[in-house]
Amino acid sequence: MTDLAQLSNDWLDWKNTSKPSPSTLRARTADLTVIGAILSQKLGIEPTDTSVAETLGGLTPDSLTEENVTRAFAEYAKSHSAASIRRCRSTWTGFCRWMVVHRKLLPTNPLEFVEPPAAKRWRPKPISEEDLARVITAAQTPSTRARKPWAEIEQAMCALFVGAGVRLSEAISIRVGDIRRSPTELTKLSVTGKGGVTRTVPLPPEVVAVLDRYLESRRERLGAFPPTALLMVRTDGKPFTPKAVDYMVSGWFRRAGVAPPPGALAHSLRHTYATLLVEQSGSVPEVQRLLGHANLQTTQAYIDVAARGVEETAMANPTRKLLGDTITG
Predict the structure, then answer these.
(1) pTM to 2 decimals?
(2) Which domains does the chain have, with CATH numbers?
(3) Which of 37, 187, 212, 272 satisfies CB 3.0 to 4.6 Å to 126 for a cystine?
């Protein structure tokens, strides 16, 4: 019988037709190997390393009994968060479902017997408008300790987060040619987000001005570049890494004297962008489109943290006058 190492590679190839992001592919591979290692250990198999070939090579579909899988996830749960458990369970659910439906190698999906942790309601973590103003101000001037200070790149990165609401992974993947200019309409930014889905984000003139200053300074520093070049590059012309962006954004918070919120700081700026949009417009579907959320419920979470804007929108309802007329008439 074919071992799980080969089957997992076949499954990943099958899933790759949906063009998952590199981070999704890494997460799936990590989920397969970590549970594979636990299963192997419990079955007396000792992998020589943590590769997919080693951790799953000694296992077959017959190894995936209800008892074995349940015990493996119970062991995994001892040292991992609820979010990690849910993600890992999702990976293995998909893998085993594929073996049930497409390969007919399992009679049932053993993950049905692994109870997931209760899902906590997700809440955005925006910062206040006052703190945002301080962070934006801090981003205008690089740290005095920077070896090669480049004010325009920090200003442009900040503008993408607070003026276009992009994710960190999106910011470092945007190409120069993704900025679409028009003589009669707002400049648009083409952003490819999760699942390879592309959305169009209108850019306010202030954001365009910041990006143009950055591009001009980039030509002076690094020379000409084609439309296919990455928009955001480091002082040496190399691509940004998530770690480098995190370091930059943490510097803004530190210089602004703003206490960093829980979680990724760049994402907190995206949360703030979304919350302010909901407060000003009250249009959750439109904000959903701007953020690239696949599920409207994700966007609706911003309503809870934008109560003031929602109340104002509700009070602006024109039916109030109609109802008032019936009461006083």
Answers:
(1) 0.61
(2) 4-113 (1.10.150), 129-265 (1.10.443.10)
(3) 272
